[in-house]
Design goal:
By secondary structure, the protein is α+β, with helices and mostly antiparallel strands. It has helices spanning 15-19, 27-49, 74-77, 97-102, 140-158, and strands at residues 2-4, 79-84, 87-92, 104-106, 114-118, 121-125, 128-130. It has one domain. The protein has a 3-stranded antiparallel β-sheet. A two-stranded antiparallel sheet has the order 4-7.
């Protein structure tokens, strides 16, 4: 799963054309900064905000604890970005990331039932429904932060 940053503008002059006026624009530096920002935004979403990019709270879990973060930091710590001009790609390498993001049904592979515990109680079941808890994406607040970062970067170049 990955994201690509695309800048869409309206009007006579695009943002990229305006940036090209800087002869030696350090685009890689800008993209690296944006990659770090995207990564920190997604980690913050998992650890602190507990909301989808659309701003909805993550679906609750049966334990009544914080979904996607309560039992470990594997999902949060598996974010990484890569820069390949002209894009930044954010990925999550946690083995269960897609299941947590899109939701799905877990069934036993080599047994008659799944076995796990909830609140210290043993549970045996033939399937578990994992609700979708989308965590990859750019929220409205993230967009504002990204624009502010680009503006600060450009301001730093002209000073």
């Amino acid at each position: 799963m990955s994201l690509a940053l695309t800048i869409d503008t309206q009007g006579e002059e695009t943002v990229l054309a305006a940036l090209d006026r800087f002869v030696d624009l350090p685009r890689e530096e800008l993209l690296e900064g944006l990659g770090g920002l995207l990564e920190s935004q997604h980690r913050r979403r998992i650890e602190e905000e507990h909301t989808t990019p659309a701003g909805r709270p993550f679906a609750p879990n049966q334990r009544g604890t914080t979904p996607l973060y309560d039992t470990g930091r594997n999902l949060r710590d598996a974010f990484a970005y890569a820069v390949s001009d002209p894009e930044v790609r954010l990925t999550n390498s946690f083995i269960g990331a897609a299941l947590l993001h899109f939701g799905g049904v877990v069934v036993p592979k080599n047994a008659k039932a799944l076995a796990f515990s909830v609140g210290g109680e043993a549970v045996f079941t033939k399937r578990v429904l994992i609700p979708a808890r989308p965590f990859m994406g750019i929220s409205a607040d993230n967009q504002v932060e990204i624009v502010e970062a680009v503006e600060a970067f450009v301001e730093g170049l002209v000073q």
